[in-house]
């Protein structure tokens, strides 16, 4: 398998994993917009589709960096010989958080802290009702 087919296969695996999450971008248009909002280089939906299907090969490094950032994977993910791994739940959450305003991200962090404290308290005092 050529490295270009591997790149396309790995990108497709990331896109498919993201689509499994109801709030994540589901179309090439949504992915393109998410990259724009994250400050990445402009990538048209058609270009993303061509990369994912192997019709376009050898993307410039700044495109690879933007895709890695969007999906929360290291740049090397696209070039290693390992099988693509699905994006984990935490990475999907991070990907979705990139699309929020700074205030929205702060609210998410506050909520995560609250849930963490609640769960920690439950573990420390099992059986006691609140």
UniProtKB/TrEMBL annotation:
Ranges of residues in domain HTH cro/C1-type: 43-78
GO molecular function: DNA binding
Any Pfam family hit: HTH_3
CDD domains with a match to the protein in the record: HTH_XRE
Protein name: HTH cro/C1-type domain-containing protein
